[in-house]
TrEMBL record:
One of its GO terms (biological process) is phenylalanyl-tRNA aminoacylation. It is found in: Mitochondrion matrix. It comes from Eptatretus burgeri. Signal peptide: none annotated. Is responsible for the charging of tRNA(Phe) with phenylalanine in mitochondrial translation. To a lesser extent, also catalyzes direct attachment of m-Tyr (an oxidized version of Phe) to tRNA(Phe), thereby opening the way for delivery of the misacylated tRNA to the ribosome and incorporation of ROS-damaged amino acid into proteins. This is Phenylalanine--tRNA ligase, mitochondrial. It comes from the Eukaryota. One of its GO terms (molecular function) is tRNA binding. The lineage of its organism: Eukaryota, Metazoa, Chordata, Craniata, Vertebrata. One of its GO terms (cellular component) is mitochondrial matrix. The chain holds residues 125 to 533 of 533 of the full protein. Its EC number is 6.1.1.20. It is an enzyme of class 6 (ligase).
Length: 409
């Protein structure tokens, strides 16, 4: 019997009904943009490292935070979900949300997937930078591959309380057998939860001020993650709108316990590099990070990583707009993201955005129709109408053959 296999980083994986990684995504594996010297993502990574190196000195004048940026992106679903207490029925596990190698392995959807293993090795403070993979919409700020920085810091009772009393734990405890409230976990004392959360917020606000200057406006928004409580998002004001830049919180004690660090408390954060780099360097389109065009990369070749950079657009190429409508047979389910991915697979870098612009259900038959607007615009060159028409027709054919829908002339 013939089995299909997938070869990733020298490992062979047997494909199954969960396998859903298109060749366009496999192509990105190993590119490691965050490790390419002078790439804007590398530059931002270096600035973030520099903040943590300057601000936090450990024993023997060594940096407190260790940096890990070569951990491979193929992980088990256990690492990506279970190790972080993501419940079995959590929506983030849906097949349509992530890229699966097979039922057991996937491309990490976040760098948090490595929290438990790094804590298990005995680390007390670390930054982890890596590529992450999500099936998502098509627009200027979304791409199936992006990059995150994960940060985590653990505190012993001594370390946490020394900062307030100046003399070590003065009758203060990290833990108590209590109840979970909006501001703390059941096993944490209120003092411990407050100190960890305020250390976290102080650290991250410091980072944002280091990157954007102290005049940037920020705000904390309460939110939830299965692996932290309490949890927050940090937003910054940019172009008069609030932009979410990171998620963070006080690590669930169960995770530390499972990693052999149950005597400590911790915070963790996860930050998207592209978002931040787009704002910091005024990069208008996320696809540019993948560009091989020297007119892009040359702009980031600076001797001093802190030198201010404002990206000068290569030149605004005109968009070509084409709509596409099709019927979805009644009773069939249809996932937008299957369509988006097919568009990416066929049109590659030619499509800037796909928008659902109209929906309609035929009263009698229950047949459902959808109309999408495809904005064709390459980030690096002008497209011709002929080449766009060709690609648009190929997409139209593929939706019929691969997604089982019926084109509407
Ligand atoms: N992993 C979360 C995400 O990708 C971010 C996060 C990391 C939140 C660590 C809390 C703690 O959205």
């Amino acid at each position: 019997k013939h089995v299909n296999t997938l070869e990733l980083f020298g490992q062979t994986y047997v494909q199954d009904e969960w396998t859903n990684i298109p060749a366009t995504v496999v192509d990105k594996l190993g590119r490691n943009l965050h490790n390419q010297k002078h790439h804007p993502l590398w530059l931002l990574k270096e600035r973030i490292k520099d903040y943590f190196y300057r601000e936090f000195i450990g024993r023997c004048h060594k940096p407190l935070f260790s940096v890990h940026d070569t951990i491979l992106p193929v992980v088990t679903t256990q690492q990506n979900f279970d190790s972080l207490l993501v419940p079995p029925d959590h929506p983030s596990r849906h097949h349509g949300d992530s890229y699966y190698v097979n039922a057991k392995h996937m491309l990490r959807a976040h760098t948090s997937a490595h929290q438990r293993e790094l804590v298990s090795t005995g680390l007390d403070a670390f930054l982890l930078i890596g590529d992450v993979y999500r099936r998502d919409t098509v627009d200027r700020s979304h791409f199936p591959v992006f990059h995150q920085v994960e940060g985590m810091r653990l505190f012993s009772s001594q370390q946490l309380f020394a900062s307030v009393t100046g003399s070590g734990p003065a009758g203060l405890d990290l833990f108590e057998a209590g109840t979970r409230t909006p501001s703390k976990q059941e096993s944490h004392s209120l003092e411990a939860a407050h100190l960890v959360a305020s250390n976290l917020q102080h650290t991250l606000k410091g980072l944002v001020h280091f990157l954007f200057g102290t005049s940037v406006e920020t705000r904390w928004v309460p939110c939830t993650f299965p692996f932290t409580h309490p949890s927050f998002e940090l937003e910054i004001k940019f172009d008069n709108a609030w932009l979410e830049v990171l998620g963070c919180g006080v690590t669930e004690q169960k995770i530390l316990h499972a990693a052999g660090a149950g005597d400590r408390v911790a915070w963790a954060f996860g930050l998207g590099l592209e978002r931040l780099a787009m704002v910091l360097f005024a990069i208008p389109d996320i696809r540019l990070f993948w560009s091989n065009d020297a007119r892009f990369s040359e702009q980031f070749k600076v001797d001093d990583i802190h030198q201010p950079i404002r990206f000068k657009p290569l030149s605004p190429y005109p968009p070509l707009i084409n709509d596409m409508s099709f019927w979805i047979p009644s009773g069939e389910s249809f996932d937008d993201r299957d369509f988006y991915e097919l568009v990416r697979t066929i049109a590659g870098n030619m499509v800037q955005e796909v928008k659902l612009i109209d929906e309609y259900t035929q009263p009698g038959s229950g047949r459902h129709s959808r109309c999408y607007r495809l904005v064709y615009r390459h980030a690096e060159r002008t497209l011709t109408k002929a080449e766009v028409d060709l690609v648009h027709r190929a997409i139209g054919d593929a939706v019929e053959t691969q997604l089982g829908v019926q084109g509407r002339g």
